[in-house]
Design a protein that fits this description.
It contains 23 helices and 12 strands. It starts with a helix and ends with a helix. It has about 500 residues and is mainly α. The chain has a 3-stranded antiparallel β-sheet with strand order 5-12-11. The chain has a 3-stranded antiparallel β-sheet with strand order 8-10-9. The protein folds into 3 domains: about 130 residues, no CATH class; about 80 residues, no CATH class; about 210 residues, no CATH class. Helix 14 packs parallel to helix 18. The longest helix is centred in the middle third of the chain and has 30 residues.
Amino acid sequence: MLDHIDSIEHPPTYADFRQAFQRREIAIVVSTLLSAEYHSPVGSTIGNSRLEVARESGMLQVAGQVLPSNPLGGYGQNYSGCMAALGLTTPREGTSDGVAEGFGQELAAAVQRTVANTGYVSDKLYMRGEFPLSQLEACADRLSLDALAKGFGQEERRLIAELLFGLRDTSLLKTRMRCCTLTRILDSLRQYAEAGIPVLWTGIEDQLLYAPDYFGVLAGRERAPVETSRPAHLRVSAGYWREFCGHQYLTYALESLLWAVLEAVEGESRGMAIDDLVVRQILQADFRRCLEEHFDTASSPRSLLESLGLTGPPTTAQCETLRERIGYEHPASERLISSLQAPSPALAAARAIGLLVTLYAKWRVSAGDEAAADLSIKFGREMWIGNVLPQMDSWWQGSLDWPIALRFLINDLIVPQHDRVMYSKGRLDRSWLHHEHGLIVKLQESKVEFRSSRHVQSANMLWDLGLIKWDPDTDQITLTAEGERVRSRALERLA
């Protein structure tokens, strides 16, 4: 749109550009809604409203913005920064963004060729504030966002793939990590196919991230995990994603404990002391019983660690051994413990403790690779595995029992981190509790959930580019011939 507006209309002011942009954006949104394959583009609320009116009157109104929050709709609110970072656009002082030389202009030209012979372009409907809906229906397939997946979108797909995978980047300095992440997904699909294990769309996070990069296996439903490893050129990227997974498990543990605290003080308008909530609400029979299902014993914090074969803070060799031993299907694995249903403070706290113990046994001493070393510098004093797990060395003290261990976790980790996020980062909306005079008062509900790794979004993008395909009947994802070609080229570029 930017290139078309620039080359055809030459808008003298930003207001003129904005109106030209909005006319085109409404047409694209409505064209996408007319497609049978895709029904939720940015601006679909306004688009559906305009489409409903047009179906009654026969005329489509295309003036005005599609998002109340931004006059440039999805581009202004979501995509402008990403497109600039990809080198597709360049900012211009006091006016609209321009299309950058190179990929930007090539991609704009490819899109122009796709829509050049449509009535929308030949009849100059983009200059009008309204026009017959039937005229748009006649060419909606080429104006729709779904056009990328059609036969006439082949050139656009090729260019976007080359851009995202850095296939023409002479240095790869800016695109290397993105290229590695996307190539990892394609490489995983190839490995799964060779192992005869189906990859399901509903299993993307587990099968394409946590299983291969955290546990080092290929995993599938009703199939025994198969050991795997990444090609040499993808191992640094895999190391960063391993750290991401570990941090997700740590966050899930701490948020489980926060949830347990909030539920424990539910209904206590004046609050409850930490010692009281630990003894009265958390240290119930369910707490120990839950932990004993995953570890041999849970009589004390030390006994939990000893059940994994430790006799003191783990050494480098012990951590490496336990990372191999506590694998994908091990009872004490992070995967199985994090999947526990925890409807009570006791069970939520047990889930938190179980995760912390396993993480401590496996990662008290980091992997020591490039990713771990880099993140230790970047995180600094922020809460992450490298800062939290060493504090659990105190669990080896013979006199330390569950009330003391839980009090420490709540008083020295959960409450300070809560306050730091709320005050230091200015997130006053993230205030779940109030802590004063030794009492904790619940302010609002909290959720315990994993953050998105955006692997699902990446898979959607790879699907749009024709590099993977999805069978809706079986939910299975497979690598296409073009996907294999791009994977091979990317690995050659990364060598």
